[in-house]
User: Which sequence fits this backbone?
């Protein structure tokens, strides 16, 4: 009996020692990250601590603030929390407060929600490569100066490592009932949106990505679907990194009830109301050249550093990487 009791006490002592070693390691990693934050990013906080003994590691960061000095974008909140069970510290649960502030070059915006949580699973090894990330935001409302408020029922964002494809990650977004909080009499609300892509990167997304994100070398758009009032859009295609770093490729878009598209864009503030009729006439000319005028085929083309929607020039193509 004495041996049993002694064994139990020894096990408890070892477990307690493991927890305190883990606590010190977490605090050390945070200090190291703050000391070598990515170039251009200013990371501030007013304190952090690790609690949860003996079964959890509960990290609370007070008043975190991140600012990109080059672009003027930033984020801040009252707190940020990360939780992990002691027996599987590679699975993290993060929680943010109901209200957060997003700094933009045009002023501060407020993001409110009823719940903002994330689940992060990394490989249980030294590199801690990302295996899966899921972020869910319930009832988000974004308020910005001089812009209409935007709300949604739910927003879910997911990233998962495609093990069989090397440095490839499936990225998905689902939005339900995205609504500008202004009258939308013509185009209607964006009732559903879904994006499913595979991102190919130049290196693994692991612990080093917090300092330097690897370049995206290829994007495979496997599914895009939007239901915008009576307008529906679906698309797929592939975009790759050109030699000069620009995106190059084509996304095939199909739009049904496309005549409502200009008004829908205007309702969301993405298109000036006075030029909506001009855009509609341009779409009518494109539709007449197709076999089925009720379904508009619009390729989104990235070529020679430029971007086109069908025959309409849109400007410079986005950069996927550095010039080679």
Assistant:
């Amino acid at each position: 009996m004495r041996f049993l009791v002694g064994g139990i006490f020894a096990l408890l002592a070892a477990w307690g020692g493991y927890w305190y070693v883990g606590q010190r390691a977490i605090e050390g990693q945070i200090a190291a990250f703050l000391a070598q934050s990515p170039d251009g990013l200013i990371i501030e906080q007013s304190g952090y601590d690790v609690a949860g003994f003996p079964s959890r590691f509960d990290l609370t960061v007070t008043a975190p603030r991140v600012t990109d000095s080059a672009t003027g974008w930033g984020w801040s909140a009252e707190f940020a929390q990360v939780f992990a069970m002691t027996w599987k510290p590679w699975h993290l649960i993060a929680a943010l407060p109901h209200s957060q502030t997003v700094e933009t070059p045009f002023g501060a915006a407020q993001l409110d929600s009823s719940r903002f949580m994330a689940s992060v699973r990394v490989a249980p090894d030294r590199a801690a490569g990302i295996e899966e990330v899921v972020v869910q935001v319930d009832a988000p409302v974004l308020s910005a100066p001089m812009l209409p408020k935007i709300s949604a029922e739910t927003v879910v964002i997911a990233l998962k490592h495609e093990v069989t494809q090397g440095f490839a990650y499936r990225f998905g977004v689902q939005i339900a009932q995205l609504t500008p909080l202004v009258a939308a009499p013509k185009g209607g609300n964006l009732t559903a949106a879904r994006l499913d892509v595979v991102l190919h990167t130049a290196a693994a997304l692991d612990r080093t990505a917090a300092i330097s994100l690897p370049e995206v070398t290829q994007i495979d758009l496997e599914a895009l679907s939007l239901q915008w009032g009576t307008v529906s859009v679906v698309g797929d295609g592939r975009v790759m990194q050109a030699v000069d770093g620009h995106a190059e490729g084509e996304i095939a878009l199909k739009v049904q009830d496309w005549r409502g598209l200009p008004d829908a864009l205007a309702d969301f503030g993405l298109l000036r109301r006075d030029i909506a009729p001009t855009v509609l006439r341009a779409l009518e000319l494109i539709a007449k050249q197709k076999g089925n005028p009720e379904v508009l085929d619009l390729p989104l083309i990235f070529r020679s550093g430029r971007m086109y929607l069908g025959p309409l020039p849109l400007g410079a193509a986005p950069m996927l990487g550095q010039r080679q």
